[in-house]
Specification:
A hairpin with a 5-residue loop joins strand 6 (about 155) and strand 7. A two-stranded antiparallel ribbon has the order 1-4. A two-stranded antiparallel sheet has the order 2-3. Strands 5-8 form a two-stranded antiparallel ribbon. The chain contains seven helices and twelve strands. The chain has a single domain (about 80-270), classed as Cytochrome p450 (Orthogonal Bundle). By secondary structure, the chain is of the alpha+beta class.
Length: about 270
């Protein structure tokens, strides 16, 4: 995505550009992983990997088949976001074997001798610790790091400035999830943040991996269910370990959260599992 040079202070001009003593704010063109500037059609094509459209094309997209309506029984969702979420989840579990083992035991006790292929929809609500691990991974590594919204009314800020109606605001999901005022020790992977007792009194806007409000991700329930199933199938067969021969991953500033050179894990088959 493009980067924003945030300079304190300033007002907005008629074109809704921040100007004045602290401005302007500079927004660089969005670029791909190779540093090439993305055209509008490139951005639209990339956005289609994680956004829903109600039976019509994204603005700027040409020559594309319309996406299926979200009311259809066969609703497409972004494969890139789910892949990113799962990759970072497995990386986090591999780095915390005690949490990984607790998830594995939870799945094994839930299935009680049944094959993982027989997992039922009702089973997914009986995986509380696994759900906490998924949520904590989505907090630490949200697949979509920012979203934009157009203001439908003037919004007064605490410092007295006003964001005028019609302005498009870019909201950082990653920044919110790493705000130490909301999340003590934000860089630590701690699934117990999402235990019922620790979640009491927490603003729902502090955890927004699927955005929030009436325009949040329509596929979030399916995405959570999908991740639970994949985790159950994987941990029932393998032990995940990090490849210590490789350096810690570095985040790449793209639409979807990725790691430079990928995330490398070692999969060790569980004893006694065919």
């Amino acid at each position: 995505m493009g980067s924003i040079d945030h300079r304190a202070g300033g007002q907005w001009d008629g074109g809704h550009r921040p100007v004045g003593p602290g401005g302007p704010w500079l927004i660089s063109p969005p670029q791909d992983e190779n540093g090439h500037t993305l055209l509008d059609e490139d951005i639209a094509a990339e956005a289609e990997t994680f956004m829903f459209e109600g039976g019509h094309e994204l603005p700027g997209a040409t020559g594309q088949e319309p996406l299926v309506s979200p009311h259809s029984p066969n609703v497409p969702i972004g494969h890139d976001t789910t892949a990113s979420g799962l990759a970072w989840l497995f990386y986090n579990l591999a780095g915390h074997p005690e949490h990984q083992e607790r998830c594995r035991q939870e799945v094994q006790e839930l299935l009680a001798g049944r094959d993982t292929a027989d997992i039922e929809w009702e089973d997914l609500s009986q995986m509380p610790f696994t759900t906490m691990c998924i949520k904590e991974s989505l907090r630490l590594h949200p697949p979509v790091t920012a979203v934009s919204r157009r203001c439908t009314e003037d919004i007064p800020l605490r410092d007295g400035r006003v964001i005028p109606k019609g302005v498009i605001c870019l909201m950082s999901i990653y920044g919110t999830h790493h705000n130490p005022d909301l999340w003590p020790e934000p860089e630590v992977f701690n699934p117990l943040r999402f235990s019922p007792e620790n979640s009491k009194g927490r603003s729902p806007s502090s955890f927004i991996p699927f955005s929030a409000g009436p325009r949040n991700c329509i596929g979030q329930s399916f995405a959570m269910a999908e991740m639970k199933v994949v985790v159950a199938l994987t941990l029932s067969r393998f032990v995940l370990r990090r490849d210590t021969a490789r350096p810690p991953p570095r985040r790449k500033p793209e639409l979807i959260l990725r790691a430079e050179n990928g995330l490398w894990l070692l999969l060790e088959p569980l004893l006694g599992v065919a």
